[in-house]
Amino acid sequence: MATITSKMLFSSKLFRVFGSKHSCHPLIAVRKAHFTYFPDTAKTEYGETSRMNLVQSLNSAMDIALGNDPTAVILGEDVAFGGVFRCTVGLKDKYGADRVFNSPLSEQGIVAFGIGLAVAGATAIAEIQFADYIFPAFDQITNEAAKFRYRTGNLFDCGKLTIRTPCGAVGHGALYHSQSPEAFFAHIAGMKVVIPRGPIQAKGLLLSCIREDNPCVMFEPKILYRSAIEEVPIGDYSIPLGKAEVLVEGSDVTMVGYGTQVHVLREVATMAKDTLGVSCEVIDLRTILPYDLDTIINSVVKTGRLIVSHEAPQTMGFAAEIATAVQEECFLNLEAPVQRVCGYDTPFAHVYEPFYLPDKWRLMEAVKKVTSF
Amino acid sequence: MLRRTIIGLSKQLQTLSSNNVKQCRGIHRTVGVHADEGDDLKEKPVYPGSKQLEFVNQLNFLNPDNEPAIPVYRVMDRKGRIVKHQGASEDPNLDKDTVIKMYHDMTLLNTMDKILYDSQRQGRISFYMTNFGEEGTHIGSAAALTKNDWIFGQYREAGVLMWRGFPLEAFMDQCYGNSGDGGLGKQMPVHYGSKELNFVTISSTLATQMPQAAGAAYAIKRSGKDACVICYFGEGAASEGDAHAAFNFAATLNCPIIFFCRNNHFAISTPSTEQYKGDGIASRGSGYGMMTVRVDGNDVFATYNATKAAREICVKESRPVLIEAMTYRLGHHSTSDDSSAYRSVDEVSYWDKQDTPIARLRHYMVNKGWWSEETEQKWKNESRMRVVKAFEKAEAKKKPSPDLLFTDVYKEMEPHILKQQQAMKAHVMNYKEHYPLDKFEKWKD
Fold first, then answer.
1. Neighbours of A334 (CB within 10 A)
2. For strand A192-194 and strand A287-289, is the pairing parallel, antiparallel, or unpaired?
3. CB distance B56 to B31 below 8 Å
4. Interface residues on A facing B, Cβ-Cβ cutoff 8 A
5. Do B249 and A192 touch (CB under 8 A)?
6. Strand B150-152 and strand B199-200: pairing?
7. B187 and chain A: CB distance < 8 Å anywhere?
8. Which of B2, B49, B58, B436 would suit a FRET pair with B387, their CA atoms being 20 to 30 Å apart?
9. Is B203 close to A122, i.e. CB distance below 8 A?
10. What is the CA radius of gyration of chain A?
11. pTM for the complete prediction?
12. Bridge pairing between strands B84-85 and B150-152
């Protein structure tokens, strides 16, 4: 259901005009971003590194996956020429047209075809061009992929299926190039849902997803595709699913987020320390389902205050799950009501994006609120 | 002069009207009517995305109403007599044992259907769907495949499993959701599956298996195995978007898959006349670039021949084939449906009396001297006994441990699910008298 608009926006011709010359996609880096990117440093045991953006690190992960596993294939709309975001560049030439191939324009077909590949024993890496267009495949994901092992009594499974899809705000993506639909998928027992915050993480998490014996959806914050650059290990490594990461240690407030929002939280932590003298602990959830509640609980027991933040709309967003669980587990430790700093309960509108996003100023206000409660 | 002009005009008119008639005959003939000879434009269309385009200089819509219907391929008539085509028959000449196995499996399925249908009426199982009238499509197609071929079904294809040797008790265990069920009692009755027999477990969601089957076929092709995939679906399911995706993906990605449509005229209460306006499902095949055939689904040999040939095309040419088997759903849609609310008893009775796949094959066997009233009676008693025996065994088994509610959500049990499993167990132990623990196997500690 990728719209005609998106086809026009991301046609290869347009891409050549706006893309390669400026080495960035037309949707990316046009206006000043609402966050400051905090690069990661790779663990030394991962070995030799190279400077990569998020697109290149994903490409590197898929290169390794295809290289190590002869059953692995990549399919999706426009992946053969390298993808509208260039994530699959060079892979068709390296591994063959039967392993990296374009599908007809049908999301339900892409996911189902991927399920079938996985059921028959192949490793399937399916791309949905924008997370906004994953909904035609919702039935295949929730009723089929997620339940395959369960309903067959483990006779069959599609654990070798990974779905990659660009998500999140990008400055001017409006309604159908900005969505963060992770909460819809967090309600699906049987799926794993992952969102990386940068290139090192993206590569390690994607390799985990691909090798994982459960179907995974990886939402990739597309605003980071080219703006997030760091030294990424060139070799094979993986980052475990289901584990959150404490990025900044603090004692007064716990802040939980994922994807691009982690960078907003890190900036807020610095601002809060500098201007309010408040010490914030920043946690990157990394995996939305199954999520690492223990790491959050340990932090909230220490700080007594929690702010959860995501770009997706507030009502029934994933923050609601975290807030409820923390309230159940940390009732006696909480010094203030849990705050949710999220997108508003509206569609994602074009020109109003700066007002819609849960930016650092809305988060600063939340920090003030929980510390003065 | 004037007269000459009039004659000339009328000739032109004649040519015009005959052109019109030709063009109105539709798709296959339109390509023959190109730009006029005197037309100095020798241009050819160069648009990408279609093969062998030609220009025409006259507006003509293709009218499906003027197209002949795709014919129904058959091998034997309603009396089980092999029909001839240009003096030759297409009798696959299967040996006696194979034909008798076909008949045994069709009738055994029929007997199992009757007993399980009744058992649902008595409240012993929660749900059932019979295969009445469609046994021929199952057995004919299954017999033409090898055991390496994978099967994706909808839910009314139990005969395929029967042919492959799925034991009667395994059918019953699944319907009872007891400890013998390979699916661990998680799905509704008739949602069978067998890893060993390459029969991918049924799910209720219609048509979802179709693009999955195409993906599986792609993987099987890449693995280099001499195998294909067959995917069954009803004519109602063919209206789903997933059917469109499946046909298109299979064709563009050259998947060795047989799409086998059981067109039994009803999707629950909806007759096929409200399901589509074209010439059934078969007419869609060529639109996707698929080899296509329509067969008499009540003719087990026609189904067999078509499937066997389709398998050859799939495996040798790596391309999909569509088979539409015309048949009639004799039974209710399911035990939750009373079909007399939307169709006449007379109509059902016609098919039941005049044309069933079982009766047709019996005629054939009798004609061959392979079957008699005596063998029929003997087999009826034996098959009934076998079904009843399996039924009683299945009914006596306990349901699996309640613990298994939590297994296989993920490959490993995730911590949050383990926690819920422990909480459930603690809760049930506290409120034992309110749960049917006696019907379930004990928790394994």
1. 19
2. antiparallel
3. no
4. 71, 73, 98, 101, 103-104, 106, 108-109, 112-122, 124, 136, 139-140, 143-144, 147, 149-157, 159, 189-190, 192, 213-214, 242, 290, 293
5. no
6. parallel
7. yes
8. B436
9. no
10. 20
11. 0.92
12. unpaired
Q: How far apart are CA B164 and CA B274, in angstroms?
A: 35
Q: Note the pLDDT of residue B52.
A: 84
Q: Which residue has the tokens 């077909």?
A: A109
Confidence of residue B35 (pLDDT cuts 50, 70, 90): low
Which long-range contacts link B32-37 to residues 24+ away (Cβ below 8 Å)? B33/B58, B33/B60
Longest dimension (CA), chain B: 111
What pLDDT is recorded for position B398? 98
Q: Which residues contact A317 (CB under 8 A, 6 or more apart)?
A: A183, A310, A340, A342, A343
Residue of B nearest to A241 (CA): B414
Of A159, A216, A114, give the one whose Cα is nearest residue B245.
Answer: A114
pLDDT of residue A18: 37
Residue A152 has pLDDT above 90, yes or no: yes
Q: In this model, does residue A20 exceed pLDDT 80? A: no
Is B296 within 8 Å of B73 (Cβ atoms)? yes
Q: What is the 3-state secondary structure (H, E, C) of A64-127?
A: HHHHHCCCCEEEECCCCCCCCCCCCCCHHHHHCCCCEEECCCCHHHHHHHHHHHHHCCCCEEEE
Closest-approach residue (CA) in chain A for B201: A152
Q: Encode pLDDT of A271-314 as tens digits.
A: 999 999 999 999 999 999 999 999 999 999 999 999 999 999 99
- For residue B320, cis peptide bond before it (omega within 30 degrees of 0): no
Q: What is the DSSP letter of A49?
A: E
Residue B151 · residue B200 · CB < 8 Å: yes
Cβ distance of B210 and A214 shorter than 8 Å: no
Q: How many residues does chain B have?
A: 445
Q: Are strands A280-284 and A253-257 parallel, antiparallel or unpaired?
A: parallel
Contacts of A190 in chain B (CB under 8 A): 409-410
What gap in Å lies between CA A84 and CA A78, rounded to an integer? 7
Q: Say if CB B361 and CB B99 are below 8 A apart.
A: yes
> What ipTM was assigned to the predicted interfaces of this complex?
0.92
Is beta strand B291-296 parallel, antiparallel or unpaired with respect to B321-326?
parallel
**Dist. CA B149–CA A293, nearest whole Å:** 45
Active site residues of A: 107, 177
Q: Which of A108, A122, A154 sits opposite B408 (nearest CB)?
A: A154
